[in-house]
Amino acid sequence: MTQPGGYLLDTQGGSVDVREYERLSGGGHRALEKGDYEAAADLFRKALSLWRGPALADVECGRILDVEVTRLEESRMGILCRRIEADLLLGRHHEIIGELFGLAARHPLHEGIHLQLMLALYRAGRRTTALEVYQRLRDVLAGELGLDPSYELQSLQGALLDSSSELRLDQPLSLFRVRAPGRY
Fold this sequence. Notes:
- The structure is a single chain.
- By secondary structure, the protein is mainly α.
- The protein has a two-stranded antiparallel ribbon with strand order 1-2.
- Helix 2 runs antiparallel to helix 3, helix 4 packs antiparallel against helix 5 and helix 6 packs antiparallel against helix 7.
- The protein is globular and about 65 Å long.
- Keywords: Transcription, Transcription regulation, Two-component regulatory system.
- It comes from Streptomyces cinnabarinus.
- This is AfsR/SARP family transcriptional regulator.
C-alpha cells in the first residue's frame, strides 16, 4: 500500500517468506554452534528451499531496494556455505562434490566455496584434484586481481600436501578461518 513517505506491505495476517527464511537460518546458526550438525543442515536446507530465484526479481528496485537485494543475496550465499559446512561435518563430502564444482564455476573468485570443495575432494580420496582446484583458483586470482589466495586457502593447501590430521572429518572448517599473524 502507498503511504506518505513510502510503502507498507500488508500481508493481511499472512507471513512473509523472508521472515521465515531468517527464522530458519537463525535456528541453523544456533544448531551449528551447539554442534548439532544434522539439525543445522536441515534448517539451512529449509531456509534455502524458500528461494524461488533472485531476491525481488519482479520488483523495480531503486537505490534503497538494491541494498536490500544485495543483503538478501549475500545472506543466501552465506547460508548455503554454512549448510555445506554442516554437510562436511556430517561426512557428506561425496554427496556435495558435484554441487560444489557447480558453485565454484559460477563463483570463480569465492575462496570459501573453493576451500569447501578442496576439503570435500580430499575427504573423498581425491587429493590431487583438490590441489588442482587450488592451482586454478590461484591462477584466476592472480590473473584477474593480482592477488594470492588467502592465508586460509594457503594453509589448507599446505595441510593437503602434508595429509595433515587437521583434515579429519571431525575437524571444523574454522581451522582454516584463522588469520595469519600480522594480517588483517
